[in-house]
Amino acid sequence: MKFYYSQNLSHFTNVLHAFTTKESGNLAFHVGDNPQMVEKNHELLAHDLGYEKEKLVYMKQIHSDLVHVVTDEDFSTPPTCDALVTNKKGIPLMVMVADCSPVLLYDAKQKVVAAVHAGRAGAFQNILKNTLTIMKQEFGSKSEDIYATIGASIGVCCYEVGAEIEKEAKALGFEYAMQKREGRFYLDVNAILKNQLLVCGVENIDILELCTSCNKEKLFSYRGEKQTGRFAGIIMLG
User: Fold this and answer.
1) What span, in angstroms and rounded, lies between the C-alpha atoms of 77 and 234?
2) What are phi and psi of 165, to 5 degrees?
3) Pick the CATH number of 3-155+205-237 from 3.40.50.300, 3.40.720.10, 3.60.140.10, 1.10.1760.20
4) What residue ranges in the chain does DSSP mark as E strands?
5) Close Cβ partners of 172 (under 8 Å, ≥ 6 residues apart)
6) What stretches in the chain show pLDDT beneath 70?
7) Is the distance from CB of 147 to CB of 141 less than 8 angstroms?
8) Residue 40: CB partners within 8 Å, gap ≥ 6?
9) Which of 33, 178, 188, 198 has its CA 20 to 30 A from that of 167?
10) What does each C-alpha distance from 114 to 3, 100, 141, 161, 167 come to in angstroms?
11) Cα gap 14→81, rounded to integer Å
């Protein structure tokens, strides 16, 4: 299982996409690994998927609702944000995760792609709505033309949260995403993300039901491992 793919996006021959696993190694420079090893992992990944490493744009992710439109950035200058959008061909966009939900978006009409980092904070701030708004304002995208894929992330089976988070979720109207089991609270982030996409009019939604914490042997999980690397979702217009 070196990579896994979206059923939604696999239909489009002009879109390169993939989700990596532990087999591709850690792709993040900020988690204590030897930077040369991380660089090597990126080189191998670019070779395996068939893109130019120096054209890859990833993010300094800060659990925000900030969206960045990619123009001429390269591998050495990651923008500080939690979503990337572009209509430029040959520029791979990357979101790195280790429990948060990696979301890939593709507008099949206007030929626009996006990579979104959507954990609990991003879901609570509705980063997906912000990303879709930017796609519509900047590129003329329409919701009915957008295909969304939510990659592997921590599931409601494992994502225990405290009473304060449960209270915040209810205040935001996310009661439907909360579970209580044996006096403990569990949050279903993907249920929130799916609902937010639907509210925005996006109906082509593919959710890869794979819990990172349950599958630590295949995927990086911060909750499951604490000190860990990052796997990634990648999307590029060809």
Assistant:
1) 17
2) -65, -40
3) 3.60.140.10
4) 3-4, 15-20, 67-69, 83-86, 93-97, 101-107, 112-118, 146-150, 160-161, 178-181, 184-187, 204-207, 231-237
5) 124
6) 1
7) no
8) 25
9) 198
10) 19, 16, 12, 29, 31
11) 26
